[in-house]
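pasting for the record
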Amino acid sequence: MAAPQHLATANFEKEIKRNPHGDFKQVEASRPAWDADASLRFTQTVKPSWTFGEGGNGSDAGAQANKKHLAIDPYGEGRPAGFNYKLLISAVIPRPIAFLSTRSADGVSTNLAPFSYFQMISHDPPLFVIGFVGALEPGPGKDSLRNLAETGECVINIISEGYLEAANSASINAPYGVSEWDVSGLTPLYDCETVQTARVGEAVFSIEGRLESLREFESRATPGKKSSTMAVIEGTRFWAREDAINEDKNIIDPNVARTAAANLNREAQRGQLTRPPSPPLTPLAGADPNKKTRPKTPPTASPTASSCLVNHSIKAVAKPKDKADKAPSFGKLDISKLRVHFKHNPRVVPFPLWPQLLQKPRSLGYPQYQNMTSQVTIIGTPTADTPGASLSVQFGPKRYFFGRLAEGTQRLMNQRKSPLTKLEHIFLTGAVDSDTTGGMMGMILSIADVIAASNFDSKKAKAPTFLNLHGGKNLMHTMATSRHFILRKGLPIKVHETRTDPRSQDPTSSAHDFEDENFLIWNVPLTIAKKSKKRKLSQSSDTGGSEEFAETEPPRDVAAEEAAALQQEKDQLAREAIVNGMFNSDWALDALHECKLFDVKLPATIFVRDDKGHIQPYAGPLPSRDSPCPNKTVLVRKPWPATQFPVPPRTYPSTTSMCYIVKSHPRRGKFDTVTPDMVVGPSVDGSGFAIIDLGQREWLVETLLSRPEFANAEIMRGIDAIYWILHPSLTEHRGLAAFMEQHSSIKHIVLGHGISSNRVAFESPGAQIVRMNRIDPERFPISVYSNDEAQLPPSMSPFAEVGRPGAMLHLVPNVRFTDDNAVPYMDRQAPLDDMEPTVLSLADAARETISDPAFKQKVEEEEQDIPNRDTEIIPLGTGSAMPSKYRNVSATLIRIPGYGSYLLDAGEGTLGQLRRMYGFDGADDVLRGLRAIYISHLHADHHLGTASVMARRWKLVEHTTKNADKSQDLTIIATRKYLQWLQEYQDVEILGRYNEFSMDFSSYNHKTATYLSRRELEQRLNLPRIDACLVSHCQSAMAVAFTWPSSGLRIAYSGDCRPSAQFAQMARGAHLLIHECTFDDELLGDAKAKKHSTLSEALEVGRQMGARRIMLTHFSQRYPKLPNMPEVGRGPLAVADKEEGEGEGEGEGDVAEGEAEEADVEMEGDDNQGGKGGVVVAVADPLAPVAQDGENTPKDRTITLFAFDLMRVKLGDFKMAEAFLPALRQLFPDEEEAVRREEALEAKRLEGAKEVSKEASAKQ
């Protein structure tokens, strides 16, 4: 049987005699010292005057050509194959070296090794070739080759002189399972975006790579034997050190990179290192050659067993376990029983013993990822549009989230370039409500899309198998309520809900509540302390007649408590079944099942089989209560499984606030080096942090101070930081200050609304607003923000500090705090510095045009017939599907003086956008005047922000309207399914009193079950008429037109849809059309497939409608700034008049943008039964007829504007805003150039932050 690869390699090294020196260190000592200051020097060529046909460039060129050359047969008789290797590496120079990082398929073993056979072969696609000496076969082999073949991924690191010796040490011949990261001491960074392998932190340039192909080659010297393997690698990401690359990101500065090639060369200098020696190992007596195991206990430390003194010749003694005469097999060697002896006593070199380098199994208490780094990063601090404090924790390739997953969090992670692909655990702090889970549903959808994309594209990083959600009471209920609009079966979700105190039975217990390969976590629920009831005892003369009380325990009804506990368990199982149906089902959209026609529940798409057995749409009479239907077998799709469950069991809002203590596993000690008795030092305690969420709940402080975990020395040992989520009112609490003083050895970091600065959290759109404000300050006001942090009170400031986004706590390998990556505050001047003069000239010209009195007079004359010209339109979200850096998801605020404010859709982050636009107080004023929220359809990106808006509004008006009439109540205009979600969610969080206006074409007040009269509707909404029609997008999707009777103002809103002629007819004569514009015209196919509209289609709807003003919104996130604008009015464009599926609410084939090709589905018993398109007037009271062709002919042309987030434009200012369009187009002429400028600006900001950090450190 063949020897293990590391022994075969050792024999190969002996054969080729790589080191020609007897004592290399003695030879090296005689050479000049390395000149670190030498730089690359460019000179002329040998003969710059060389011309074509001249031949060699030297004076003896002819003589050189005539010198004798030797022909060498690589397979000549008696020539060892190793000679060819030595010849080639000495002749083909300079030659790059691939420093290859790989990992095993199970993630337990990592490898790092240099390879001489390496070169790039293509740039499009980026392809690289690496040659391995050895075959691709099962069993022992090249570690790197084995890992590459198993995982299909690697990182190629280019060696530079900064770590020559460490890179050379990784060429050691180690057994499989030994990591060269430990040998070299280099830093593994697990931040790669497309692979899960680590890159070398010291490398100036690294390449993430995916295996394109492998090819084996047969030996010529030994026919039939596979002797080498070639791997072709496709580069998927490049990593370049910031100070080494130019601004265009296309040239590496060689004087900074100082890369090394074969023989570790650098221009004008040549260094040389020999491969580190390794002992040829043989089994010891008692070793079982047929047993391959890892040590279950650490090897005994003794000078004999744990030292390794290396000479050129090392002898090992071995004896098979059984007295067999055959030679021992190295293929199944028990490495734990090896001992290395030395023949003589030469110099001592550090060389750790193999078993101690093997990564320990979990039974030892060590994590599997021994050589990884771990850090805690502050992702977000509470601001207007990112209300949740959040931490990102990275340990090797895995990521964890701790904190409040509030609205705007995933958008912030996008801004911070924190990928979702490796997020496996989300630990929610605080109570379960919109402050904590407002961004949870959107995050789940985004992660599901990432997983679907990674499954589709094998070159992307693999996403986690499960997403684990950890939180307090009502987390499962919150998930279950969303069953009607969270349609994802590709992301199994595990919900871990803490419903009881884990230390209620034994407060002294140190047992943790969660464990994986990286962390131990203790759940710390804080709830209101139960107060015992008191009984009056007597009158005491000693106390002046005051009453004296004694605490008594009320009698317990054990049977009732057990029955209640059993019912709660059953209720939780019912909720869990719903959640499993939402994410873990095997439901398929295209699966049809047979049933009788009279059993079909409408709405549904019905099919039949024709005479040939082909499936065709059914066109006969539908089942009806009023008339019989044929006894016919038909085919229908099964509804989404989660919708078949009944309403989740009732619950009530929870006040329990979840907190966590997090610690890494203990780590093995460092190697004691350069001594004959080299051993592993004692294990190192795990390091960690705690996160405590008190919010504004002062009553939780008492509970916190009494929690046993913080008095448990074993749990708190190694805790280096506590992150506090606090309201400013709690910073003066004496108990908290005393707690911090008691734990003064721990760093306390405070995050909280009113404490952390209301900084601009999204720097990219913030910079964009600054530039657009310079062009048109009326339409693009500067967002409300502040860079000022609150000062902690004197009682707390000695022990605590205010946290900043980007600040890091490093846990592994060494605990340290850094703020080098702290996000700098927005500089309002920086975005203006690179604005093109042409843009400014166009803006100045537009400003001059609109200030002309003649222009103003003309506008007044042409817009005399437009009512309520002071109506203000504020797009709060203009993107589709999911939030991006530049565009939030759908929401548009309409403010009509004298009539109140109205929200058209309310996607995630709506409340935050309001606060960023108006400030906290200004946003509260808007909410007080908010009369109605209209939800166009059930897609999550159109309504996930509704709950937080409603909850905040109720807190503002509760005391003023609680005992008053309902004239100021908020009205929710939506489908019945959405109104049902609100009712179920009210069990989790109080949303207040509101009116329901169901868009299943019956209008009623759910609270009183009485129909609204026209007078009541007029008082509540100032909106007596709602015209609505079903449109082609998803089930129950509608377009609407609102009409105010006293002025005649009409505003039409498309929601998401294909262009609809019915909508155009219904809203004829609208003064304002707000229409979706998801795709550019060249993506018409995408628009049809995903049931959206292109730009030209939206404009044509406006033309047919006769709309006076058009605002386009809901852009695909592929257009982050400004889509291409076609010329308007170049002839008729066809509008999809009754396209397939339009108005039927079927959702057939509907795929929302960015939703991973998951189609909408029929839901049993859904809305619009009996509705087959057409115009539906939701309120029966007749009003004046809609203007038809020829009536009220407009005096001016239609004006079209593109919507931007946080834009403000009045209905009467469209022509003024239009004047600035040329400047805006010039501002974003080229997307690639815009991105380049943004990245340059970001680099400038970071550089400024580093300088500030250095100055602060110097002052300290």
